[in-house]
Amino acid sequence: MEQEHKKAALEAILFAMGNSVELDRLAAAIEETPEETRLLLTQMKEDWEAEKRGVCLVEYEGAFQMCTRGDLYEYLIRVAKAPKKYALTDTLLETLSIIAYKQPVTRLDVERIRGVNSDHAISRLVEFELVMELGRLDAPGRPLLFGTTEQFLRTFGVKSLEELPRLNEMKLQEFRAEAEEEAKELGAESGL
């Protein structure tokens, strides 16, 4: 199969699937190595950008997806019903941040960090497809483990978790000190 035909096959697969497809599956479909397939996908991406096509090729942790170019979204919503918007409250953002940075994490771990019940927040994040169940912890009670989804990466415009901003170590120490001080004050107020 010549390269142009392989690119056409990759485009057809990505168009038909709608969601992202892992590099290994794409390589197997066109009977090529993952390295050669990645090269073809990179060429496709560059060609589409140069041609200013209406779609672009995006990679999410080793999986590829055909997407509408972001700057053309306004035209898309004129025809299609606007997707359901969800509001990420401070509580949801706080919970999502903990899951993103600590994953895989249990509900109890999230609650220990937040200091409050997090059932509703986690349920909403699962409903918004930003968080998913990853399995169960091998511990008494076999609690569920949670982690972020590919939709999380899309929503926040990152290709992988490694692209998430890192906390400055000085800030982290300040946060710890503030939390310990608050805990002492709460303990003193409650007579502990």
UniProtKB/TrEMBL annotation:
The keyword Nucleotidyltransferase does not apply. GO terms for cellular component: cytoplasm. Keywords: Cell cycle, Cell division, Chromosome partition, Cytoplasm. Its main location: cytoplasm. InterPro entries: ScpB_csome_segregation, WH-like_DNA-bd_sf, WH_DNA-bd_sf. Coiled coil: none annotated. Belongs to the ScpB family. This is Segregation and condensation protein B. It comes from Candidatus Eisenbergiella merdavium. The gene is scpB.
